[in-house]
Specification:
about 400 residues; alpha+beta; Cytochrome p450; 3-stranded antiparallel β-sheet; 17 helices; about 50% helix; about 10% strand
């Protein structure tokens, strides 16, 4: 199907954002690719298509390695947004080979299974400490007290950001990530530009310091690669560090909040998890599938692509709907049922292809660590107020999740 009137995909509608999954089911029933007038994108709702297109080299996260804005039929971003785009466009998430390949090869050395495993004692100890404080206080905002500080501290530790400098990291990240939503407002862009400038200035100083006094951290390693082989420009180093922080904790923060909101909505499954903590690994996967932190991933069409008889032309933009793909009944039995023991779970919450999330093993470890600590130290934790959801679609998460602990 090429287009449809009155599509149920309505990212400006709060009711849709609050629960997009019934609309996704309707989209899947209406076709494999659908034109959305509101967003100016082609929507792809089926798991098989999303999975295949994530690996299709006729698509790209950018087109600038092959075309100018004018050649591609696109309007250049406003000049006042330049600091954000300079920062964003030099990170490997928005690059294509060969630059993507070069940067990912260097960064991947920090995310080998052995390297991630070495972080396990730190991650579990910090999760236990944060949960301990929550228990001592008798509850509080689970996001602010546990979900946010854990991944921020872990990524900052990897990068080598001193503890005294970490307070602005989360606000900077949140401001920058606001630009990944569909049709961000002028105020959102202004906040993102300001955060981009401040974060860039900070990292330039940190890189200069690590060049003078190297440490056992990722910024030092990237600086050495830059100095020894000129394999990374300074801007690429800065953009890579920002990307690792943003991607390294946004998914974990939102994944944690969504997971516990879901568990509270399914008391039977929560009781089963409390009774059998060996379910934690499969529970993490199922909760990531059931309410996906990253709802869609955008790709530019670099060459005409045919989907189910519809030719999507060069210059178009595809919205690959992860949230819909993860509820596709062609892949998941009873997809709208939460099953923490689900055995076959090929969700695509961490994407696929060359842009598969490099930090997925670390994110899984963090999610499991905080979940285990909460199950062990706060077995009677319950909701103290209705969860407050952010009005964002692309990065789906909560504003607040207040809990109480008897």
């Amino acid at each position: 199907m090429t287009s449809a009137d009155a599509l149920p995909f309505a990212p400006s509608d709060p009711h849709f954002v609050a629960d997009p999954y019934p609309a996704y089911a309707e989209l899947r029933a209406r076709g494999r690719v659908l034109w959305c007038e509101e967003t100016g994108q082609w929507l792809v709702p089926h798991h098989a298509d999303v999975s295949a297109l994530l690996r299709d080299r006729r698509l790209g996260r950018t087109y600038r390695h092959r075309y100018t804005h004018e050649e591609f039929g696109r309007t250049p971003p406003p000049p006042e947004h330049e600091p954000f785009h300079t920062l964003n466009d030099h990170g490997m998430l928005d690059l294509e080979p060969p630059d993507h390949t070069r940067i990912r090869r260097l960064v991947s050395q920090a995310f080998t299974p052995r390297t991630v495993e070495r972080l396990a004692p730190y991650v579990h100890a910090l999760a236990g400490e944060l949960v301990g404080r929550l228990v001592e206080a008798g509850g509080g905002d689970l996001l602010a007290e546990v979900a946010e500080p854990l991944p921020v501290a872990v990524i900052a530790e990897m990068l080598g950001v001193p503890e005294a400098d970490r307070a602005p990291l989360r606000p900077w990240s949140a401001a920058i990530c606001g630009m990944y939503e569909l049709n961000p407002s002028a105020e959102t862009a202004e906040r993102a530009v300001r955060a981009s400038l401040e974060f860039t200035d900070y990292l330039r100083e940190l890189i200069a310091e690590r060049r003078r006094r190297p440490g056992d951290d990722l910024v030092s390693a990237l600086t050495a690669a830059h100095d020894e082989g000129d394999r990374l420009t300074e801007q690429e180093m800065i953009s890579t560090c920002v990307l690792l922080l943003n991607a390294g904790h946004e998914a974990t923060v939102n994944g944690t909040g969504n997971a516990w909101a879901t568990l509270f909505e399914h008391p039977g499954q929560l009781a089963a998890l409390r009774a059998d903590r060996s379910l934690v690994p499969s529970a993490v996967e199922e909760l990531l599938r059931f309410d996906t932190p990253l709802q869609l991933f955008e790709r530019w069409v670099l060459e005409d692509v045919e989907i189910d008889g519809t030719v999507v032309p060069r210059g178009a933009e595809l919205a690959l709907l992860f949230g819909s793909a993860n509820r596709d009944p062609a892949v998941f039995a009873e997809p709208d049922r939460l099953d923490l023991g689900r055995r076959r779970n090929p969700h695509i919450s961490f994407s696929a292809g060359i842009h598969y999330c490099i930090g997925a093993p670390l994110a899984r470890m963090e999610l499991a660590a905080s979940m285990t600590a909460l199950l062990e130290r706060a077995p009677g934790m319950r909701l103290a107020a209705e969860p407050v959801r952010r009005p964002d679609l692309v990065m789906r998460g909560l504003e607040e999740l207040r809990v109480e602990i008897a």
